[in-house]
């Protein structure tokens, strides 16, 4: 499958000498939800800005559905909708006027039915005649999404789309994202809510200090780097782990009343062997349960190891 976005050897160095991006190469596939994760200052917004033609790269190339973002800017940019972090819009414009203007900017003919459906999907239809200055923060965030979608782009960038949005509206927005994906729109998102990326994304990219350190299918990432914990609630507390169990990755918790075994995905043989060896070591347990590391755990491990 040909990528809809192809970034090759992209670097950005500012006049101050700060290198925000370092030789980044990245492909985004048509119709996927791609989550770009990284700590503050990692280069997420700079990378999005470069792909959208807002930031001028120092070197490298960016192609959007085959169009060079520099040499064929208009064609490339027309394919992209961008929802920025900042709530920047004309405070005295009406909701309807703002989305109509955004559609017209890309030379699209008027389509009131489409804009009505868009505003209804984003729970903004009843405020279509309201001045933007009268909207709440969550409504302004949804208006940015409506403006980004007004010209029917094939690619949508969501830069921290649910920041400052309450739980109910966040759920509604992700339902809209799912429907956009189902219609064939490619979505690239950044988020501080890593559980959202874990739920929504098809693939995960991690950027740190201006470099892409990992790009992986989400399920494969969870399989390869995720770890599981088997927690055994003991009948009698332990002061220390018996030497006979030293071959296992064990730890005591809750004042010795719990024994925790850390194992890799699919390591059933290790669990079977441990449960077999516990009675020989004089250990009996009354209950057990397993937990799995989250995407957030994996992210912290990846980034924390490169500080």
3D structure, described in words:
By secondary structure, the protein is α/β, with parallel strands linked by helices. It folds into two domains: 5-222, Rossmann fold, CATH 3.40.50; 227-304, Alpha-Beta Plaits. Helix content is 33%, strand content 28%. It has ten helices and 14 strands. It has helices at residues 44-51, 73-78, 95-105, 112-121, 137-149, 167-182, 194-200, 218-225, 268-280, 295-304, and strands spanning 5-13, 19-28, 33-37, 59-64, 67-68, 80-83, 155-159, 186-190, 203-208, 211-217, 227-234, 250-253, 258-264, 285-292. A six-stranded mixed beta sheet has the order 6-7-8-3-9-10, with helices on both faces. The chain has a four-stranded antiparallel beta sheet with strand order 2-1-4-5. A four-stranded antiparallel beta sheet has the order 12-13-11-14. A hairpin with a 4-residue loop joins strand 12 and strand 13. Helix 3 (95-105) runs parallel beside helix 5. The longest helix has 16 residues, at 167-182. 30% of the residues are buried. The mean pLDDT is 87.
- Which descriptor suits the 3D outline? elongated
CATH topology of the largest domain: Rossmann fold
CA distance, first residue to last residue: 35 Å
Number of domains: 2
- Helix run count: 10
- Spatial sequence of strands, sheet with the most strands: 6-7-8-3-9-10
Average pLDDT reading: 87
Q: What is the makeup of the main sheet? A: 6 strands, mixed
Element-level helix/strand string: EEEHEEHEHHHEHEHEEHEEEHEH
Helix share, percent = 25-40%
CATH top-level class of the largest domain: Alpha Beta
Radius of gyration: 24 Å
Beta-strand content bin: 25-35%
């Amino acid at each position: 499958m040909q990528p809809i976005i192809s970034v090759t050897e992209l670097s950005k160095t500012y006049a101050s000498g700060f290198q925000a991006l370092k030789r980044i190469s990245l492909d985004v596939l048509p119709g996927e939800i791609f989550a770009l994760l990284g700590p503050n200052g990692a280069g997420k917004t700079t990378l999005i800005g470069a792909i959208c033609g807002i930031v001028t790269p120092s070197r490298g190339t960016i192609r959007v559905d085959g169009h060079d973002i520099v040499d064929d800017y208009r064609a490339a940019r027309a394919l992209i909708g961008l929802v920025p972090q900042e709530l920047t819009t004309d405070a005295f414009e009406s909701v309807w006027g703002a989305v109509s203007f955004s559609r017209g900017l890309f030379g699209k003919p008027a389509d009131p039915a489409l804009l009505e459906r868009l505003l209804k999907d984003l729970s903004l239809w009843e405020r279509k005649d309201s001045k933007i200055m009268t909207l709440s923060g969550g409504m302004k965030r949804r208006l940015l999404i409506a403006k980004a979608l007004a010209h029917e782009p094939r690619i949508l960038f969501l830069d921290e789309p649910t920041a400052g949005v309450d739980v109910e509206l966040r759920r509604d927005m992700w339902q809209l994202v799912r429907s956009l994906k189902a219609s064939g729109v490619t979505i690239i998102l950044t988020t501080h809510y890593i559980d959202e990326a874990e739920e929504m994304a098809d693939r995960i990219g991690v950027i740190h200090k201006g470099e892409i350190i990992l790009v992986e299918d989400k399920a494969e990432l969870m399989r390869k780097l995720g770890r599981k914990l088997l927690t055994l609630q003991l009948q009698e507390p332990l002061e220390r782990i018996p030497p006979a169990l030293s071959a296992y990755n064990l730890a005591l918790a809750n004042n010795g009343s719990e024994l925790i075994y850390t194992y890799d995905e699919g390591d059933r043989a290790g669990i079977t062997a441990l449960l077999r060896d516990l009675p020989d070591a004089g250990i009996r347990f009354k209950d057990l349960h397993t937990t799995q590391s989250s995407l957030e755990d994996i992210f912290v491990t990846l980034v924390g190891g490169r500080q």
